[in-house]
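This entry is listed below:
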Amino acid sequence: MTGLDAAVRLAGVSRRFGALATSSVQAVNDVSLAVRRGALTLVMGPSGSGKTTLLSMIGGLLAPTEGTVEVEGIDLASLTPAALADFRLRSIGFVFQRFRLLDALSALENIELPLTLAGARRPASRVRAVEVAARVGLTSRLDSKSEALSGGEQQRVAIARALANAPSLLLADEPTGSLDSRAGHRIIELLHAVAAVGTTVLVVSHDERLIPFADTVVRMEDGRISAIE
């Protein structure tokens, strides 16, 4: 894979937690990986294998203990904290298992929030939020608060929110983990559709149903990559 093909490059990335050698935990151990641009890459492995820690480093939420993380050719370690926060806001979308919606806001307002944080103003931010909501099939639920939405609908709001600023990279941590099989399948199809139009999608999951939709499956065990399929 050439540099132009890779949206994410990891070189010798490790992450330890804890300062003392006797009590530290090696969550990720010497991982090198290139994630193809515009593809859906699935990272799988048992609990404690380092999947979420790896995703957090790719998203700039954690710094590696060793190695380098590059997203769209930018070494995240080279950015100041303010520049890193701005890069995350504009270039990386995050989707979490527990949705992390703001209960006081409507579905539309939740989707519009990252646009506002990035400096967009109405009516442009509202128009964009409505467009993204339509893309994930939420047009009829825009005025609903989180408590009135099903789990699948809440996850679609979370995905729309992550896509609002048109990020080049979408990171999803167990996006189907708290959903029933029907809602989970819809989310899988949606993430596949997102990748199909050019967004790089990296998913951490235990859900085997994702495998047929993935372009690449990365398997982790004990903090290392055990296989790439």
